[in-house]
């Protein structure tokens, strides 16, 4: 019990450090990258101060999103190193009738999983995989009972962690258990002999990203989305859209955008292009996180349909004496406490 309390204290301490760091300029320097600004007419670099200011605002949002995932990953990393988790899993306890170990077996490991779920509502489930990808347990236990697949070695997060022995943030996936669109943070469990005895997983509920982006009070005709490298939506400021749905996963409506292709090359910038048969000014910012990539897209609607003759976007920034602002009010000061 004392060891579990120590585990909780460690998590609380590291969270405070991470949240403090989120307000420091140093966190953005960790993921510093070259920034290039494009227009869609000639693809030449356009030194546009307004684009730079928008990118800077996206950087602030990116830093908060980074710190959130870092906090969750750190909690899993701490958990993976405490004695109850490091204790070798007892394979003899696995019962195919319950798709893993029974609810009352290896209870100390389950207690830690329950603690993580209690402390971090961004996690929808905590799983422990054996080194071959077999499910050892799911928490909540109902998820384990509802499983249709008991070996996850086909997943990208298993394959990357098995190869690198490092924490990995997955692409968006459709859960075989719940049917929801989600992502997984996976961290290896390494014993004293430097052998991987298992993988600890935390499934991230995308509803949290939707709530966060929808809290930003963006200007009219402006939308902000977070996507993975395949163009699958992870979070959306549009209150009429739900990122956690299977339909959202299957759409992949952003994958063919030029802005996304440039972002995958590590470039940031702004251009005008078609989305859903309408032209939009899209400002894009990619960032690397736990062996994977995420992309922020700021989408600002143009004043005409692509079937009309006009190609001009609504220009909210013609006044050179006024800096562009994504928001109807200054909200960045309260964003760090949203999670």
Tell me what the structure shows:
By secondary structure, the chain is α+β, with helices and mostly antiparallel strands. It has two domains: 156 residues, Beta-Lactamase (2-Layer Sandwich); 132 residues, PAS domain (Beta-Lactamase), CATH 3.30.450.20. The protein contains eleven helices and eleven strands. Strands 1, 2, 3, 4, 5 and 6 form a six-stranded antiparallel β-sheet that branches. A hairpin with a 5-residue loop joins strand 5 and strand 6. It starts with a helix and ends with a helix.
Which key features would you list for this structure?
33% helix, Beta-Lactamase, six-stranded antiparallel beta sheet, disordered C terminus, alpha+beta, 2 domains, 339 residues, 11 helices, five-stranded antiparallel beta sheet
């Amino acid at each position: 019990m004392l060891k579990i309390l120590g585990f909780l204290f460690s998590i609380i301490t590291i969270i405070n450090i991470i949240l403090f760091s989120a307000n420091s300029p140093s966190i953005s320097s960790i993921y510093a990258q070259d920034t290039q600004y494009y227009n869609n007419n000639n693809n030449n670099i356009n030194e546009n101060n307004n684009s730079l200011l928008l990118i800077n605002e996206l950087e602030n949002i990116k830093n908060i999103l980074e710190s959130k995932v870092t906090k969750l990953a750190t909690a899993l990393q701490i958990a993976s190193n405490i004695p109850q988790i490091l204790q070798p899993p007892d394979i003899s306890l696995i019962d195919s009738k319950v798709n893993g170990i029974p609810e009352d077996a290896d209870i100390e490991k389950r207690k830690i999983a329950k603690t993580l779920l209690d402390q971090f509502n961004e996690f929808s489930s905590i799983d422990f995989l054996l080194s071959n990808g077999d499910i050892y347990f799911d928490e909540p236990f109902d998820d384990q009972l509802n499983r249709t697949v008991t070996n996850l070695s086909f997943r990208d997060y298993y394959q990357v962690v098995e190869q690198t022995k490092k924490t990995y943030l997955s692409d968006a996936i459709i859960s075989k258990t719940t049917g929801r669109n989600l992502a997984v943070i996976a961290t290896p469990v390494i014993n004293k002999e430097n052998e991987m005895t298992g993988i600890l997983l935390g499934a991230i509920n995308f509803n949290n990203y939707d709530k966060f982006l929808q809290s930003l009070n963006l200007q009219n005709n402006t939308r902000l989305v977070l996507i993975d490298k395949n163009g699958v939506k992870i979070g959306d400021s549009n209150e009429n859209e739900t990122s956690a749905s299977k339909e959202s996963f299957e759409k992949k409506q952003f994958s063919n955008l030029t802005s996304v292709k440039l972002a995958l090359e590590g470039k940031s910038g702004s251009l005008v292009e078609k989305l859903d048969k309408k032209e939009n000014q899209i400002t894009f910012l990619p960032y690397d996180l736990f062996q994977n990539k995420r992309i922020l897209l700021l989408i600002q609607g143009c004043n005409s349909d692509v079937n009309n003759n006009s190609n001009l976007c609504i220009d909210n920034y013609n006044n050179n004496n006024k800096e562009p602002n994504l928001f109807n009010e200054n909200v960045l000061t309260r964003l760090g406490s949203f999670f």
